[in-house]
Design a protein that fits this description.
single chain, 448 residues, alpha/beta, 5-stranded mixed sheet, 5-stranded parallel sheet, 25% strand, binds S-adenosyl-L-homocysteine
Length: 448
């Protein structure tokens, strides 16, 4: 390539593919240099630049839970026997009921190409061109072939079957060649749902894994104001804004979009698994049998929960056993919440309160304070953290007996220390921490 760029005029042999990027290179029919474009697996001659064009698609089929090695070996041997270059394979294709088949995805990942899927009707449209149409396959999946049909569907009307169906015990494969393969035009992907949490507010508290999941997503689903917090990182993506309280609709919508083969990020604030959307997604998947939902892939990415940032701002109040209780009685009956409050107070857990108060609801935080006052010293530190990592952030530390509910709203998280937690003044401000006992223990040792 360096010699050609330095002025050597090559001659050109095109065996397969339709290169549109060659035109700027001056050609010479009797050149010393040679460019060969071929999807065959060959060893280039000296002075020859061999380019494998994106011209092949491998169609596969297999039984449920076929061993990934069996399918991979079948494909590797099929390509080798036909003297085809794996580098020219642009996609692995199959029928949509295989969209969650591990062997298919392992194969595609191994070759570094995408896996794409067609429905039975799209495959059936290829029946006239199949070399091995099968009535048995038709009865099973609604199309007369899977591997041959998928390879042909992927390469389009100009495509040709170049290796007819080959079988191993539990898998099949076939190869088609097409003029110019654009993966974006081929079938559908397996849908993907990333369940992410933005952290309490600003970008600094969002994990890199969450940013990556958001970056790959085509569609972003969430509560409008949380999506706004994502700023430019979701520019150009399709937004699906939902109002407060529309949690089930949000999750269903995200699952439906992923079920159509799209890449979705479902966004909560804080950590998506802490009083947030992740659990609702799994509840829906557990209770409703939508075949489209069952085939998607799902990742849950942890985020910094409000409780964690509140604790960090205040010092180290969660240093010993702790629990979190949501004071919202929308989904949990108030008597149950009260029971948990009593149990946490009695067991001396440091306790974080989420959803401590709303415009209509404020008696809960008062009751919580009274329950804890019955079990903890009056000077137990309480942290009231509002609008964390957002405009107007405030973090106050005060003794339990002075807890004022007026300063608490829906965007506040409250942490009550345990009986050992301490408040102290240091470098001109107040801190709180919960000892684990290290210092006490070491003092004891030195003394003995
Ligand atoms: N998944 C979220 C919690 C959602 S429940 C998380 O892990 O943080 C909503 C409650 O979280 C709010 O009522 C409030 O108690 C707390 N919260 C969420 N974001 C907050 C913030 N930036 N500052 C203070 N509290 C917050």
């Amino acid at each position: 390539m360096a010699d050609i760029l330095a002025g050597g005029k090559p001659s050109l042999i095109i065996e397969s593919g339709e290169p549109d990027w060659l035109s700027p290179i001056p050609l010479d029919h009797d050149g010393t240099w040679m460019i060969r474009i071929s999807d065959r697996s060959i060893t280039p001659n000296p002075n020859e630049l061999l380019i494998h064009p994106p011209s092949l698609v491998v169609g596969v089929g297999c039984e449920r839970d076929c061993a990934p090695d069996e399918l991979r070996e079948l494909v590797v041997e099929t390509l080798a026997d036909a003297r085809l270059a794996p580098q020219s394979v642009r996609a692995i294709v199959s029928i949509d009921v295989k969209a969650d088949e591990p062997a298919v995805h392992t194969l595609a990942e191994g070759l570094g190409v995408p896996a794409r899927f067609f429905n039975a009707a799209e495959l059936e449209a290829e029946s006239p061109r199949l070399e091995n149409p099968s009535d048995i396959v038709f009865r099973e999946v609604g199309a007369h072939g899977v591997s041959e049909a998928a390879a042909l569907a992927a390469t389009g009307p100009k495509g040709m079957l170049i290796v007819a169906k080959r079988k191993s015990r539990r898998a099949t494969c076939a190869v088609a060649r097409g003029p110019h393969i654009d993966v974006r035009q081929i079938g559908r992907s397996r849908g993907h749902l990333s369940i992410v949490g933005t952290g309490p507010g600003d970008k600094a508290h969002r994990t890199p894994a969450t940013d990556t999941a958001i970056a790959r997503a085509q569609d972003i689903v969430g509560y409008g104001p949380y999506l706004d917090l994502l700023g430019p990182s979701i520019a150009g993506k399709t937004r699906h804004d939902f109002g407060l309280g529309a949690e089930i609709d949000r999750c269903r919508h995200a699952l439906n979009l992923a079920g159509q083969g799209r890449d979705i990020a479902l966004v909560s604030s804080g950590d998506p698994g802490v009083f947030a959307m992740a659990t609702l997604v799994f509840e829906l998947l557990d209770q409703e049998a939508h075949p489209d939902w069952q085939r998607i892939s799902i990742d849950v990415h942890p985020g910094v929960s409000a409780m964690q940032l509140a604790a960090a701002r205040a010092g180290a109040p969660l240093g010993h056993d702790f629990c979190a209780i949501s004071l919202s009685d929308l989904l949990t009956p108030w008597p149950t919440i009260q029971e948990r409050l009593r149990a946490a107070a009695e067991a001396d857990f440091v306790t974080a309160f989420y959803n401590p108060r709303s415009r209509k609801r404020h008696h809960q935080i008062e009751t919580a304070r009274d329950i804890f006052l019955a079990h903890r010293p009056v000077d137990t530190p309480v942290i009231i953290a509002r609008n964390l990592a957002r405009e107007g952030e405030s973090v106050e530390i005060m003794p339990l007996s002075e807890l004022q509910v007026e300063s608490i709203d829906m965007l506040t998280v409250v942490i009550i220390g345990n009986s050992q937690s301490r408040q102290m003044a240091l470098v001109g401000r107040s801190w709180a921490y919960t000892p684990r006992g290290y210092v006490q223990k070491n003092i004891g040792k030195t003394g003995s």
